[in-house]
Design a protein that fits this description.
The protein has about 450 residues and is α/β, with parallel strands linked by helices. About 20% of the residues lie in helices and about 30% in strands. The chain is built from ten helices and 36 strands. Helix 7 packs across helix 9. The longest helix is centred in the middle third of the chain and has 17 residues. GO terms for molecular function: GTP binding; mannose-1-phosphate guanylyltransferase (GTP) activity.
Length: about 450
């Protein structure tokens, strides 16, 4: 049954303001019951497991890319929308995880109020919005931006807002074009090329529908999105308990009924892409803003490297003073934290970020990489397409390298000897690479010492 949302005029007394919500974690709960114990420790079923080993020590939204936490880039774009004065971070991390970041952001973005709302359980994207609807609707905002924090792009929020105003839209989604082979890995949008109205939306279709994909950035009318979620919840609740069986079952003994508690928990998980957007396409007030600028997802740890490059390129093109001046040994763009020590004979770039108190010795070569705080790279070592973890050490004449992937590719894995391996080499926290050791296409978990050459492995 398609959802039809009647078009409404602006309510009397509406403030006309716009709010923004950044989703800092996302979980889909399937037919098995999952118990999650709230804890301040980072990691776990709803805490960026695909971003390991980097998310073992810091939540993915706070991981530094191009010298700043991933979520900082979202806030920078939000701060450029004059009508936004409030931002809510919704997630399942403990409140203490974002406390320092919110405190620092309050001084850096004085015109917006930033608050963290913690889900009591994983509710899905739309479920989290609906659960906190009273806080979000306080002050009666007219529109609501929703951003996934693991998105890397230029965030054309003002352009999306203008499209919404011009079309009197109930929803605007940010879209971009990818190759037909990659499109099925994302939500696909079919739109009218003239009016830009969304005609059809399918999340990760099994067959080719369109190469225009969902970028994970949305603008909703508050009068449309919350009734849509409420209708989805009612539809889920009214559906009778289903008989669930394992695919391999051949008799009723291996089947079971979902109990009331489990069904109730599952009914609260409402996913924006699967449960809401498809129905919104039937309203005739759902539009897509197609960006021609860069876009990447930051799902896996390795995807931080292309995201780092894209944000550094953007900063370079905009003339950012944060970047290191170009020279014979600095191939722009390169970000070097003011507290880092880089020897004059070391050659860095392009697309390199060096974190606080990192030490890079003489004759070192670093390219397309992120060097995190307190890391040390000793003389004449080479680091290519890699992430060097916090407090990690790379020995003299060592070589830590990944494999470059095509710019148009959205994958960070490659096939080596018939096995899929990570294209980006990642050293977790406090790893050590011995002198003259070569590490290629590896993921190394924290606190490991590599004393021999290793390639195409996960070192545990």
């Amino acid at each position: 049954m398609s959802l039809q949302i009647p078009h409404r005029e602006k309510a009397n007394g509406s403030s006309g303001a716009t709010k923004a919500v950044i989703l800092v974690s996302f979980v889909v709960v399937f037919n098995v019951r999952i118990w999650l114990t709230p804890t301040s420790k980072v990691g776990g079923a709803s805490r960026g497991t695909r971003f390991r080993p980097l998310s073992l020590d810091v939540p993915k939204p706070l991981f530094p890319v191009a010298g700043h936490p991933i979520i900082w880039h979202c806030l920078t774009a939000i701060s450029k929308v004059p009508s936004i004065s409030e931002v809510y971070l919704i997630g399942y991390y403990d409140e203490s995880v974002f406390r320092d970041f919110i405190k620092d952001s309050a001084s850096e973005f004085p015109n917006i109020s930033i608050k963290y709302l913690r889900e009591y359980q994983a509710l899905g994207t739309a479920g989290g919005l609906y659960h906190f609807r009273d806080a979000i609707l306080k002050g009666r905002p007219e529109r609501l931006f929703v951003l996934n924090s693991d998105v890397c792009c230029s965030f054309p929020l003002n352009e999306m807002l203008k499209l919404a105003q011009d079309k009197d839209a109930e929803a605007v989604i940010l879209g971009t074009r990818v190759s037909e082979d990659a499109a099925s890995n994302f939500g696909c949008i079919v739109s009218d090329s003239h009016t830009r109205r969304v005609l059809h939306y399918v999340e990760k279709p099994e067959s080719h529908i369109s190469n225009l994909i969902n970028c994970g950035v949305y603008l909703f009318s508050t009068e449309a999105i919350f009734p849509s979620i409420r209708t989805a919840i009612k539809r889920r609740t009214d559906r009778p308990s289903r008989l669930v069986s394992y695919p391999s079952s051949e008799n009723l003994e291996s089947s079971f009924m979902i109990d009331d508690d489990e069904e109730s928990q599952k009914n609260e998980v409402i996913r924006l892409e699967q449960d809401i957007l498809s129905d919104m396409a039937d309203t005739k007030h759902f539009f897509v803003y197609e960006t021609k600028d860069f876009w990447r997802q930051i799902k896996t740890a390795g995807s931080a490297i292309p995201a780092n490059a894209l944000y550094l390129q953007k900063a370079w093109q905009s003339g950012s003073k944060e970047l290191a001046p170009a020279s014979a040994n600095i191939l722009s763009p390169v970000y070097i934290h003011p507290t880092a020590q880089v020897h004059p004979t070391a050659k860095l770039g392009p697309n390199v970020s060096v974190g606080p108190r990192a030490v890079i010795g003489p004759g070192v070569r670093v390219k397309e990489s992120i060097v995190l705080e307190d890391a040390e790279i000793k003389h004449d070592a080479c680091v290519l397409y890699s992430i060097i973890g916090w407090n990690s050490r790379v020995g003299a004449w060592a070589r830590v390298e990944g494999t470059p992937t095509p710019v148009t590719s959205h994958a960070t894995s490659i096939i080596k000897n018939g096995v899929k391996v990570q294209a980006i080499t990642i050293l977790g926290k406090e790893c050590g690479v011995g002198d003259e050791v070569r590490v290629q296409n590896c993921v190394c978990l924290p606190f490991k010492d590599l004393k021999r050459d290793v390639a195409n492995e996960v070192i545990m």
